[in-house]
Amino acid sequence: MSTAIHDTWSMTVRELLKLWRQPWWIAVTLVQPVIWLLLFGALFEGITALPGFGGDDYTQYLTPGIVMMTAFFSAGWSGMPMIEDLQKGVMDRLLVTPVRRGPLIGGRLLQGALVIVIQSLIIVGLALAVGASFPGGVPGVLVLIVIAAMLGTGWAALSNGLALVTRQEETLIGVLTFLMLPLSFLSTTFLPEQLMPDWIASIAKFNPLNWAVVAGREALAADPDWGEVALQGALVLAFMAAAFLVATRAFRAYQRSV
Amino acid sequence: MIEPAIRAEGLVKTYPGEVHALDGLSFAVAPGTVFGLLGPNGAGKSTTVKVLTTLARADAGQASVAGRDVQGDPRGVREAIGVVSQTSGVDVFLTGRENLRLQGQLYGMRGRGLERRVDELLGQLRLTDAADRVVQTYSGGMQRRLDVGLGLVHRPQVLFLDEPTTGLDPEVRAEMWHEIARLREQEGLTILLTTHYLEEADRLASALAIVDRGRIVAGGSPEALKAELDGDAVRVELRDGGHNGDVHAALERVEGVGEVVVEGQAVHARVGDGARAVPAVLQALDQHAIGVASVTVARPSLDDVYLRYTGRSFSEADA
Asked: What is the pTM of this model?
């Protein structure tokens, strides 16, 4: 067991070092959510005036959505370095060492989760700085971040699974750009359910991103309905577990094809 | 009888939609030697390495490396081997030192022992000055030396070098040869080298096997393989072509001349003793009024060995 932990940590350090050496990428991952929060916050501020919105601070409403959307986007690209490793022979080099097989994907996911935690803290901090308040307090923020990490890890596992199957950057980019924006808008990230067309509200019920947004927003409320948080959180956890299964199977299929 | 460091018996591997990549391949490598697997692209060399290094599973047959069964104890095999593959596989965003350190950690090495080993390797591979630069800034030769370092960090018993010089500049290739020759002196290390360069196999390997279409067609030391071919090769360059019939007529009665092959202006003749045959060959050609531009005598090369066992010349098979 301790070997598996060491192996996972070694692989995580490797991914973190690689990220650290690409400062422009770090800048993008940090600046993008900031822009989203400020831009969308300003753009849609008038929504609070709509009857049925129920609240008067749009940034407060938007923040959990932006946290989840950011986790979702940054995790989506996690398959790209995997493709690079496959193409450059790095994966084969790792597979002929005694390293446990799980950490070869697990390390990437853990690195992704750490990045998501940092991004989420920045977004929450910025929201507070521009005057939003979160009645749920520290426990609420912790729940929000844990759920963001679960959503991101699951989505990253799917991205890695897709990378292992297609082994082509173009295909991965195509699939992700096709999915990511629609999934963001088919959720309560920007608008509450009451203000959505019925068909969108129905689709949102099956969208993992929406499960995470609903759970996170509820946890930040003044008097959270913890039953609802637990239910939506459990759905996100189930999504993550299913994604792990997909990634594991894709990895096995890759190993058989060598 | 010493237990071989590598033993392959009847390996078969078929990829979907393809003919047999391996078709009953068998060989054994004595410990502490450099063994060359020689063959053209697609002969099955890389597939053999993949099976022996536990990357791929054979459909049939048995193999052991360092006394451990490849299928039954893959983890044991992985601990005992180092692999330097055709594609580099280093992390270009990491420094040389970080690459070596992470690789060592994957073998369970930790702390000061690991740091000492990394320093030692950096020194041996002449990378000490570049140790803390990211690999992106390395030259091709430096990167290739680091590849070798990654394969050696845990002091393996068996090192696999899969086409270590394919696609390299001549200078970098010479540098790699120097590096491999140095490893050869290292005590107890067994090296399996695959290559499609005849010269490389001739120069570095003490024993070799010729692979063709997934099977071993000949094996032995380079000298023994060449010695199986009688005599020397005489190569005559004619002033003009179109003498095919005349050349055969001229040379068939010259004493000591065996098989003769004419390709345009080039004549290849197998002779018992090159130095003695040349004057007679030239005289016979002169009598038939065939103009000669140049003549060379050569000891048989591995190219001739390859031609003999596969019925194809090496460059033709590689095309």
From this structure: 0.85
